[in-house]
Amino acid sequence: MAGVLGFALASCVQNTAVNPELVAASDVTTAPSRVAITIDDLPYVMPSRTSPEDGLRYTNQITAALRKHGIVATGFAVGQQINARSLHALQAFADAGHTIGNHSWSHPDYGTLTRDAFFEETRRTDEVLQQWIDEQRFYRFPFLREGETEATKVAATEILSELGYQNVPVTIDNDEWQFNADYVAALEDGNGEAAAIIAQNYLAHMKERTAFFQNLAIEELGSDVDHILLIHLNRINADHFGTLLDWYDEQGWSFIPVEEAMMHPLFSRLDNYAGPQGLSQIERVLGGKRE
Known about the structure:
Elements (H helix, E strand, L loop, with lengths): L8 H6 L5 H7 L7 E9 L9 H17 L5 E4 L9 H9 L3 E4 L12 H14 L9 E2 L10 H13 L3 E2 L8 H13 L3 H30 L5 E6 L2 H16 L3 E2 L2 H4 L19 H6 L5
Parallel strand pairs: 1-2, 1-6, 1-7, 2-3, 4-5
Helix pairs in contact: 2-8, 3-4, 3-9, 5-6, 7-8, 8-9
């Protein structure tokens, strides 16, 4: 995934200055485009450290932000995290009109799995999700890692096809998960000042990543594409994703469902990357990571 631009929590606590690289990125502008919103790790991130009440609250905050902009999002659920504690949050996401997809049973790196293990990871979650999945059957690889060799890529494609799933890659990859870890740690330490700095840097990072991948498509592919943004259902997005959506709106972007984004020719182009990294689909088409 994209290199971490945020600074460590320790520096936040000791330093009240905002990361200057991200301050510059916070004023970035983009050309109007189209983007689908996808949300990983449903029901919610860090379930062992998150109460059912907080998990439901984070879900409701994110779905409220989506509703404000008329967005139908696609969320990808980890099967073993769906239980009595988290069920209400997952149901709330579905009840808000959003699509739920398969994100494996235990969130493993596909590169560590045998063919049979990948099949079982996908099948078990498929069984759990039956009440939420209908004709739209979407899959998201954990860590965006789709196979280290051409043979393992083909094997995954065959298994997903057998189970009736369509892989949903991303174009705008980012490290909001790292900002969330630092943000939660700051809040748990009672350091609101550090949390506010991390939130500001998170927003700047997301804007910079958006501009980076838009420019990469234009420069390397000849034109912009319909984008798919990756975020996670976590605390920092519950508190601040609405502000990011406002920015997209101000930049002239329109929000589309993932099935519409997937109709763009980018997603039918040959994937030229096999390896251990999780990459944007733009980078996969280009054959490797770009920075």
